[in-house]
Amino acid sequence: MKKSMSLDTLLEGARKNPGRVVVPLAENHEALEGVVMAMKDLVVTGGTLIGNPEAIRKVAGDVKLPLDRFDIIDCPEPMAAGDTAARLVADGKGDFLLKGQIDTKIYMKAVLNKELGLVPPGTILSHVAIMDLPSYHKLLIATDAAITIEPGVDEKLQLVSNAVDVAHRLGIDNPKVAMIAAAEKVNPKMTSTVHADEVVKKAKAGHIKDAVVEGPYDLYIAVSKEGAETKKITGAVCGDADILVFPDINSANVFYKTVHQFVQGARVAGLIAGAKIPVVLPSRADPATTKRMSLIVAAFLKK
To answer: Could you tell me which residues come within 8 angstroms of residue 218 by beta carbon, excluding any fewer than 6 positions away?
Structure first.
């Protein structure tokens, strides 16, 4: 399937904008293997590895990471490692962060440190997955599989805004956003449909710029024109969504991991949206290829 944009397209741009990666608790096999891949892709030039030096050197040896291109900082305590990593990037000594063997809450707390100024005031952070799927005709962005547990209407507007911003920076000028729910009709007993309807109304009122927001849509309607026609639903987003906004972390996380586990040939990147610098946030259990794809997108987005 020929696509106007894919992760291969982003790789071309990322190679023109390589950067230095900073990894807190870097003694993670998949993370460092992903870094090796990204170095071969010419999107990572080196960086800083933080954690237990002996463990880092052991994993680096296993994956054949060239340590002469990296500084190693002895800092095995998780909170201190996260703070050190975020500060290095804030001070310009790194270009983007990659989550190693560190808990997501600690990682996020370091990024949110107001003293560092990595997050604009009033902005919430959210997770976006950029997916290149063999069966879909373009890149697909899904949110939020990792951070926002049970967002209300205002939080969902921020999720939409963050995802739209990422889409714009990837070169998608007027992204089509589907507010996902189990049903396409507003049902007071289904909060997801009520929230979706309210978000769409606020988007049309001007709260979201340079994007088309529709819903509530089930997944069939959002990504399949045939599905939409069968259900007699019409709209610009039907069968052509660029962004899927799931109702909560449970549904988004299951979708994200289902794609990894069951969609052969899927390529996925996971990042945090809303920060001033690229912050890579795959799951610790994600394969090295996901870390690689995430670093490609991070380099592409790096200013």
So the answer is: 180, 181, 182, 183, 184, 227
Asked if residues 141 and 166 have their Cβ atoms less than 8 Å apart, the reply is: yes
Structure tokens at 124: 């919430």
Instruction: Give 112-170 pLDDT, tens digit per residue.
Output: 999 999 999 999 999 999 999 999 999 999 999 999 999 999 999 999 999 999 999 99
Contacts of 147 (CB under 8 A, 6+ apart): 104, 108, 125, 126, 127, 249, 272, 281
DSSP code for 99: -
CATH number of 7-119+275-301: 3.40.50.10950
Decide if pLDDT at 1 tops 70.
no
CA distances for 263 relative to 117, 259, 260, angstroms:
38, 5, 6
**Per-domain residue ranges of the chain:** 7-119+275-301, 127-261
CA dihedral 167, 170, 174, 175 (to 10 degrees): -40
pLDDT digits (tens, 9 = 90+) for 163-172: 999 999 999 9
Structural class in CATH, domain 127-261: alpha beta
